[in-house]
């Protein structure tokens, strides 16, 4: 199978490419692209790249994910997250390929109290969430949308690496206890993407690790895994956060992986197992 990957140098893309390289039995030929060799906002460049490679699938990871920047750069957010996706879908249509679009819990308003199902109505509150939903709306019914949340992996910057660094320091650290979600470890997400793509699935799927907790609880868990004193982690409310954070964060963004369950796809492991494994990997350097 020939897969064109966007966002190939990002947090998920880097591990995706590494996993495919280390598992030749998957039979995947990968065309890895990122901003250095493909500007998804350039329709002609996208069309040319896709026509040259002739993929069966485009796994679309590229996105503007800086949620506070999106509040200031609205046109840029929509250009990357919506128009970029439109360009890829049109190019895929021309060569008979399908698109797997990675989306986000931010498409929901976070005001619920039960996990969001794939068929629940989105209601994004931030420009980032609205632009990612706009990207979803460019996707054809036969294509694949995978929504995920709280993504953390080996590469790039993420909150887990911040928590480990804080655990290795001294003094109190503060995290919010009123924002609840589910972590997603990149190595697990990649396997789900590949499973859904290689089985030619379409439609919307939620893909997160099992279980849910607050950022405060996650930080305490990470401190325990590192061997630091979890009592150093102090719970605060969202109202106590830095007021310079422009984008509203969902208070409750737990995703129910119902479509994975109903299609008998492999579930992602519980977050405790996967986060603990990632912490161990990161500590080994």
What are the SSEs and their pairings?
Blueprint: E1 2-6, H1 11-22, E2 29-32, H2 43-53, E3 57-60, H3 67-72, H4 74-95, E4 98-104, H5 127-137, E5 144-148, E6 151-152, H6 159-167, E7 173-176, E8 180-181, E9 184-185, H7 186-198, E10 203-206, E11 213-214, H8 215-226, E12 233-236, H9 258-262, H10 271-284
Parallel strand pairs: 1-2, 1-3, 3-4, 4-5, 5-10, 6-9, 7-12
Antiparallel strand pairs: 8-11
Structure in words:
By secondary structure, this protein is α/β, with parallel strands linked by helices. 40% of the residues lie in helices and 16% in strands. The protein is built from 10 helices and 12 strands. The strands form 4 sheets. The chain has a 6-stranded parallel sheet with strand order 2-1-3-4-5-10, with helices on both faces. It has a two-stranded parallel sheet with strand order 6-9. A two-stranded parallel ribbon has the order 7-12. The chain is globular, with a radius of gyration of 19 Å. The model has no long low-confidence stretch (mean pLDDT 97).
Mean pLDDT figure:
97
**Which fold name corresponds to the CATH topology?**
Rossmann fold
Give the name of the CATH superfamily: NAD(P)-binding Rossmann-like Domain
The first-to-last residue Cα distance is: 33 Å
Strand ordering within the main sheet: 2-1-3-4-5-10
Largest sheet: 6 strands, parallel
Helix content: 40-55%
**Radius of gyration, Cα only, in angstroms?**
19 Å
Shape: globular
What structural category do the secondary elements indicate? alpha/beta
Number of strands: 12
What is the name of the CATH class? Alpha Beta
Please tell me the CATH architecture by its name.
Answer: 3-Layer(aba) Sandwich
Order of SSEs, N→C?
A: EHEHEHHEHEEHEEEHEEHEHH
